[in-house]
Give the backbone structure.
Amino acid sequence: MALLPFRKKAEVETPTDPKVVDFLQDFSIEVMPRTLEKLENVRDHLPENTRVYIAHIEGTPITDMVATAKRLADDGYRVMPHFPARIIKDEATLGDWIARYQGEANVTEGLMLAGGVAEPHGKFDSSMQLLESGLFDKAGFKRLHVAGHPEGNRDIDPNGGFTNVENALKWKNEFNARTDADMAIVTQFAFDAGPIIKWANDVQASGIDLPIHIGIAGPAKLQTLIKFAIACGVGPSLKVLQKRAMDVTKLVMPYEPDDVVSALAAHKAANPDFAITNVHFFPLGGIKANAEWAASRGGISAQPASATA
């Protein structure tokens, strides 16, 4: 698999595990408008043509989202904004968002999700309603990703388990089969490869054949990760962080996702039909730190804007 072009910032150590190198190719990353503003030149850090998701947090004006999308598109990135159903008032609002993204940033991809608010702001309550609206198809959106939850989601399955989550994924799998949409599942982050592998295998065994882009938390302070993990409802694998926090020698060291990525890469290499096809990073410790970590493990080198790729 070809390596992505990446602007060289510093020499990095040649990766020693080719399975990890292969597993990290064509990774994606998630940003917010306010975090991206801190980077003067995105191309100093992220490979050209990387898919960049833009998280739409409640209260973020659509003008900020579209401006971020335009900046990324102008820099040569594949842009995938979030469309959180519960903060979209109605079809007119959804249509306006789609038109703005297309007209100003030539966006043709989107992540459909319910959104992290308890009460819908209007008509929409789920990502399935967004898909059923037909507005994305009418606008020519072809790549529509949906959310996955390797450790379940209490908002969807209040009593635990995966019943409602799995039924929703089956519906989306059928939607993919009967439309021209190019779909994939992008997941919440988790820290333990074992439960991730089991979940992905269970999804595949249930007849869902959508490719899975696994969520991975990028390098960050341990306290930061624990805070985000609790806020995002990360379940059993939170114990990985809690165990690390009990080790004084590791408590002050930044967390890096080598263990979970290496285990998943090894499983993928041994099982080529494994449903996980890509890595999706949540840069909880910063975009720069995450990009540098990926470069050092994936064989991608960063180059300054004045240099050639």
Q: What stands out?
A: The chain is about 40% helix and 15% strand. The first strand starts at residue 28 and ends at 31.
